[in-house]
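EI: anyone free to look at a 227-residue chain?
SC: sure, send it
EI:
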Amino acid sequence: MSDRTAVGRSQAASASPLISVVAGAALLIAVLWPLGELVSSAAITQVDREVIQQSVEIRVPLLNSLMHFLTFLGGTLFVTLALGGAAVLVFLVERQKRWPVFLAWTIVGSVGLDNLIKMLVDRPRPDFHRLTDVTGSAFPSGHSSAAAALFLALAFLLTRRMNGGRAWVWGVAALLACLVAVSRVYLGAHWPTDVIGGLVLGGCWTGVMAKATAAWPSREGGEGPEG
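SC: here you go
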């Protein structure tokens, strides 16, 4: 094989994951933007409103405190600390930069896409029975997308080398993300359809980044793409 052919194949292998990331981001925007416009309709918003009203009726101080804690798990402080700790740990274990980079870009991409779609849809937040301070537009839920991205990315890294118990890890990760989403509705910060959109965004983006990172040609230790 000539040097020119080898270089060409290397460049193609490097470009393929990048194309997948760009295509994945474009597809998520193409799906979630019109979906956000759809759920902003008066009919769906009325259904959302009734769900929030039902959550108000079951509020008690202990449950309020639990929901504030759960919403903290999708907030900037916790996500940043968890991301930093996980990035250091995975680098010490794997000795590859690709996985800390995977964690970072999964969260950064999720936040970036969330903000972009929020700007495009510009859905007003619920304006009643709110138990937490909020800013910005409603759809999709940033806490829900960040929680889904974080916990599912951690589950992906944990289960890469596992032979058994994978379902439990994925189940716990999905449950935590869903609990964060529920807390946002309970606290009156988001409509129910906002958190569904956030979970879809965070989950799908994590899948895109996991696939692209595993396929990225490694220059560390002479390893190639992972399956």
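EI: The two ends are 24 Å apart (CA to CA).
SC: 👍
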